[in-house]
Amino acid sequence: MASIRENDWRMQKFLNKGYGLARLMLETGKLRLKIEIRLRTAPSPPKTCKFFPGSKLIGYGWEWAVYGLPGKKKVVKIPAGVFLEVNEPEYLENTKFAYEVCKKFLGQFVVESTFERRKGINMIFQRKLLGKEHFKIDIRKISLKHRESLIFLSERLLKMLEKHQWIPDMNLEKKGKVWNIWNCMFEKEEPRIFDFTYYHDPFRLYPGRTKWEIKKKGGNWRKFLKELSS
Question: With 106 labelled, which of 23, 91, 156, 158 sits at a CA distance of 20 to 30 A?
Answer without folding.
Answer: 91
